[in-house]
Amino acid sequence: xxxxxxxxxxxxxxxxxxxxxxxxxxxxxxxxxxxxxxxxxxxxxxxxxxxxxxxxxxxxxxxxxxxxxxxxxxxxxxxxxxxxxxxxxxxxxxxxxxxxxxxxxxxxxxxxxxxxxxxxxxxxxxxxxxxxxxxxxxxxxxxxxxxxxxxxxxxxxxxxxxxxxxxxxxxxxxxxxxxxxxxxxxxxxxxxxxxxxxxxxxxxxxxxxxxxxxxxxxxxxxxxxxxxxxxxxxxxxxxxxxxxxxxxxxxxxxxxxxxxxxxxxxxxxxxxxxxxxxxxxxxxxxxxxxxxxxxxxxxxxxxxxxxxxxxxxxxxxxxxxxxxxxxxxxxxxxxxxxxxxxxxxxxxxxxxxxxxxxxxxxxxxxxxxxxxxxxxxxxxxxxxxxxxxxxxxxxxxxxxxxxxxxxxxxxxxxxxxxxxxxxxxxxxxxxxxxxxxxxxxxxxxxxxxxxxxxxxxxxxxxxxxxxxxxxxxxxxxxxxxxxxxxxxxx
Length: 490
Prior knowledge:
Pfam families: AAA_25 (PF13481), ChlI (PF13541), Zn_ribbon_LapB (PF18073). It comes from Actinomadura litoris. One of its GO terms (cellular component) is cytosol. Belongs to the RecA family. RadA subfamily. This protein has helices spanning 77-83, 103-116, 150-160, 175-185, 210-227, 248-252, 351-364, 390-402, 428-437, 479-487; strands at 12-14, 20-21, 37-39, 92-97, 141-145, 167-171, 189-193, 230-235, 255-260, 267-275, 283-289, 292-295, 314-321, 324-336, 344-347, 372-378, 410-412, 415-416, 422-423, 442-446, 465-468, 471-476. By secondary structure, the protein is of the alpha/beta class. It has 3 domains: 9-40; 72-118 and 139-297, Rossmann fold, CATH 3.40.50.300; 301-487, 2-Layer Sandwich (Ribosomal Protein S5, domain 2), CATH 3.30.230.10. The strands form 5 sheets. The protein has a 9-stranded mixed sheet, with helices on both faces. Strands 13-14-16-15 form a 4-stranded mixed sheet. Helix 3 (150-160) links the parallel strand 5 (141-145) and strand 6 (167-171). Helix 7 (351-364) crosses helix 8 (390-402) and helix 8 (390-402) crosses helix 10 (479-487). The protein is globular and about 75 Å long.
């Protein structure tokens, strides 16, 4: 008699390559990556689905009413900038960030503003008809906390001034209870803090697992679409900075936001990595203090060190976060090493990009650092990922190596190639305008940066020296020329 064969059920899956196994292992058997094998959602065989009744007949796209999907300001201008104008009824947002970064404080502030009908400048909140004096009463907001007790959230609300009559608070960890509160309160905004703490007895697994998160998210998204409720989900992150749970969660929601910042600093930044209703290249800056969180419409000064005398190893650059130019300072320290392998430490910059710039300096400019420790960082906790920082990084490292300082009124921006050439980066004129507004007088940029949109160059009195927004702009072809003109600038 032949033995009956049973197929092993794949209970774990690699999040990188999709390799499946019946038991947990620390290392993927396909891509050999450590720590990527996680619990997989239970799979069911595909079934044949026949045509059934529709919820609403299909209409020509031009006849679809978009008034219900109009954005509504949250009251925080910096958050509205990232969202593309505000929140959309029926949208589901996922906010992720490290523990203690201020996610709950931010959402409590948003919930309080939404419950009072507050809105930012430019909104139409103040143009409501006087015939509906109680229109604000319909703006109920439900804040569901699964990580803290209601009393703990109330203490934070007292501290930040988020006590309103239409902000409802519930401490629940069961999905059915959360849906029951939605039925009772009928909110226009639902905040769930966090989705990893909410579970349901309808499926197996502990809260926070793949199956539980998938089921909870699917039900909350269904409620949001059916009732036109804006739902904000708080998500945990792993040690690598990725959102914990299945990658499917990021595909299901409409907006994915990351809340970033150094917990030892008051500066907080929020950026959108996915947004179905607006841009994904905007950055919002906030100041987190004991009395709440406020937006910073002009954060450039936070990323600079105020000094009267120049110091070797520092250079200022201008980076673009979306359409917003930010002036930031790059600092470098090159010191003699007593180790067989000198250290290369970075903070706020891409490690591989820093290593490439150091190699270009050593090979093209003969600035050897094979016996020196190199430390590179940014000021204010800002993270610079643009290639436009290369030129400022090279000038800072070179200045620290030869103990020569740059002018405190000089900025440098541009990409550095492996051949030592200086490459043009986008948005140079916008960057220079921001630097001129802050009082900088000199700029080192790659040649060809000051060209009009049609490709024609601006009129210059000197081919090596031109003026823009009151600044003296020095265009260079290579990193060697950049070092020459930067250290000889007044």
